[in-house]
Write a structure and sequence with these properties.
With about 90 residues, the chain is an all-alpha fold. Helix content is about 50%, strand content about 0%. It is elongated, with a radius of gyration of 29 Å.
Length: about 90
C-alpha cells in the first residue's frame, strides 16, 4: 500500500514539474492560505455577542430590527411613543 502512495506522490511531483509549478511554491501558497484563515478565525472569535457584530456592519444595521406595532404596550406602561420630526409615530422608524 505504501508503494502505491509513493507512486502517486511521484506522479503528482512529475505533473507539477511538467506544468512549471514547483511543489515548494504550492506548499508556500498553502501555508499562506492557512495563516490567512487562522487570522480571519481569530478576528471572528473576538466578537462574543451578536451586538458586537452589528456595530461593525455598514450604517450600524443589525438586520434584526422590527418596527413597533400599534398597541405595543408603551402607552399602557406610561412610556412615550417614538415620534418623528413630523410628529407622526409611523414615521419614527
Amino acid at each position: 500500500m505504501d508503494a502505491n502512495i509513493e507512486e502517486v506522490y511521484a506522479v503528482f511531483g512529475e505533473l507539477v514539474a511538467v506544468q512549471g509549478v514547483s511543489l515548494k511554491r504550492l506548499q508556500r501558497q498553502a501555508a499562506d492560505l492557512d495563516e490567512r484563515l487562522a487570522l480571519a478565525l481569530d478576528r471572528l472569535k473576538k466578537f462574543e455577542e451578536p451586538d458586537d457584530i452589528a456595530e461593525h456592519r455598514p450604517n450600524g444595521h443589525s438586520g434584526r430590527e422590527v418596527p413597533l406595532a400599534e398597541g405595543d404596550g408603551q402607552a399602557e406602561r406610561g412610556l412615550p411613543r417614538e415620534t418623528s420630526v413630523s410628529g407622526n409615530p409611523s414615521d419614527a422608524r
